[in-house]
Amino acid sequence: MWTPAGEAKGYRQNRQATVAAHTDPELIPFAKRLAYTAQRQRIDTGTSLADRHSTTMGIHFSTEELAARREAAQRAMRDQGLHGLLMFRQESMFYLTGYDTFGYCFFQCLYLGADGRVVLLTRAPDLRQAQHTSVIEDIRVWVDAAGKNPANDLHALLNELGASGQRLGIEYDAYGLTAHNWRRIEQKLNGFCEFQDASDLVTRLRVVKSSKELEYVRRAAELADEALTEAIELTEAGAFEGDILAAMHSAIFRGGGDYPGNEFIIGSGSDALLCRYFTGRRHLSADDQLTLEFAGVYRHYHACLMRTLLIGRVDPEHERMHAACVDAMHACLDALRPGDPMGSVFDAHARVMDAAGFAQHRMNACGYSLGTTYTPTWMDWPMFYTGNPVLVEPDMVFFLHMILMNSDANRAMTLGQTIRVTDSGCEHLSRHPLDLIVKQ
After folding, report:
1. Residue 378 DSSP code
2. Residue pair 294/263 in contact by the 8 Å Cβ criterion
3. Residue 22's CB: how many other CB atoms inside 10 A?
4. Distance between CA 233 and CA 424 in Å, rounded?
5. What is the DSSP-derived secondary structure letter of residue 56?
6. What's residue 42's pLDDT?
7. Contact, 266 vs 292, CB < 8 A?
8. What is the Cα–Cα distance from 410 to 360, expressed in whole angstroms?
9. 151 and 230 share a domain?
10. Which residues of the chain have pLDDT under 70?
11. Segment (H or E) for 213
């Protein structure tokens, strides 16, 4: 069971290990070696690789669950005739091994062979990160130096793994693989092996959640609820957006939560019509509108909420917009059934909004999957838009958002919640009702 005291105790223990890692004089010579295995190295806490899971707070799934995920990926690879998979998505690395870092902003690659071999190629700062947060035993470090091309290290690694002349899957669609780095890989490995786009191989496995993942999602939803409660309490004429935002984040961090995959979205007045974060804060007016879109996050699992709060006088058009959002939400929930295509959910949303006279003010999508996603976004695959053929399955987790933005009248209204698909319908993960929130 999660408790704040337990979380704090684990933090203090692991803080000592983190300090040791940053002051270890052996870090530099270690970086010059090519391979790091459990037989040769111990992490800073003095425990073996096999003991990591029980002695650190860096790995959040059992070794058995992580192994089962890799086995499912291997089956998918064999079905596609792949010798191995080159992963550049941090989400894939976390899902299969527990590896948790923002180091994907630099060149790194996780290799999974159809035979189960797992090798990480990364930079020295992520050596201890991988040891502490993952079950990866074979970690190779490419050394920063003038003129260095890590594609050369990847070529040497793949040659060692017997990938010459083989077909390899690769995650082209990844924030961790820039066009610059891909061109270096392509140039170095041209003629060495055959590449096949496998960007969605692990993503498709991630979309249906395990019982442990759902435990984390529910905790994330609780944190989102706490954040919204804080926002509602502070929202009033004269309130500073920065105070509201700070209180929301504080509720999540106090509860043991994490940073989200992207910034919280907050905007009032005419900025309430924006669906993206931007810099700049204002004080709420006597008659105002405040749009909030945010996520509770726990173990990188997201649960989102979205609301437009009204301050002071309520315009009848705002009430009509909110009623349309509620009706559209219920229509989407009715359409969100196992075995049905995701496109039908968006179509239900569009029918209600259009019938209410808001065709010109709605969006062209009404939600998406949620899970473990890293910066720059918490949006996951797949999305609700017309014609999407992906079939809904039990234990998928989705964020449904009903958004109306009327630029002519300068009015916004939004309503969003996170749900889990059940065998027969949907489970609401938030305790907050869908009522219009008005603060006087």
Report:
1. -
2. no
3. 10
4. 36
5. -
6. 33
7. yes
8. 14
9. no
10. 1-57
11. helix 211-234
Nearest to residue 380, comparing CAs of 351, 348, 418, 413? 418
Neighbours of 361 (CB within 10 A): 21
The whole-angstrom separation of Cα 313 and Cα 438 is: 9
One domain, residues 181 and 222: no
pTM metric for this prediction? 0.87
Cα–Cα distance measured from residue 63 to residue 38, given in angstroms and rounded to the nearest whole number: 15
Phi, psi of 335, deg, nearest 5: -85, -15
Please report, for the domain that includes residue 28, its CATH number.
3.40.350.10
Q: Is 254 helix (H, G, I), strand (E, B) or coil?
A: helix
CB-based burial of residue 337 (10 Å sphere; 0-12 exposed, 13-18 middle, 19+ buried)?
middle
DSSP 285-345: PSSEEEEEEEEEEETTEEEEEEEEEEESS--HHHHHHHHHHHHHHHHHHHH--TTSBTHHH
349 half-sphere exposure, CB direction, 13 A CA radius: 27
368 within 8 A of 398, measured Cβ to Cβ = yes
Please give the span between the terminal C-alpha atoms of the chain, in angstroms, as a whole number: 39
Is residue 336 domain-resident? yes
Length of the chain: 440
Tokens of 92: 């894939």
Cα 92 to Cα 202: distance, rounded to the nearest angstrom = 6
Q: Give me the helix-helix angle, 316-335 and 343-355, nearest 10°.
A: 150
Q: Return d(Cα 163, Cα 159) in angstroms, integer.
A: 6
Closest CA to 296 of 344, 270, 331, 261: 261
Q: In angstroms, how far is CA 432 from the centroid of its own chain? A: 23
Which residues, at least 6 apart from 281, have a Cβ–Cβ distance to it below 8 Å? 240, 241, 242, 245
Strand 138-141 relative to strand 118-122: parallel, antiparallel, unpaired? parallel
* CATH number of the domain bearing residue 357: 3.90.230.10
* H helix or E strand, kind and range, residue 400: strand 397-406
- Residue 403 and residue 363 in contact, taking contact as beta carbons nearer than 8 Å: yes
**Structural tokens at position 183:** 């061109």
Asked if the structure places residue 82 within a domain, the reply is yes
Closest CA to 174 of 83, 99, 84, 87: 87
Domain span including residue 212: 207-439
Interacting residues of 297 by C-beta distance below 8 A, sequence separation 6+: 220, 223, 252, 257, 258, 259, 260, 261, 303, 378
CA atoms of 21 and 48, how far apart (whole Å): 15
Indicate the residue among 155, 175, 205 that finishes a domain. Answer: 205
Looking at residue 281, what DSSP letter applies?
A: -
In the chain, the number of structural domains is: 2
- pLDDT given for residue 58 in this prediction: 85
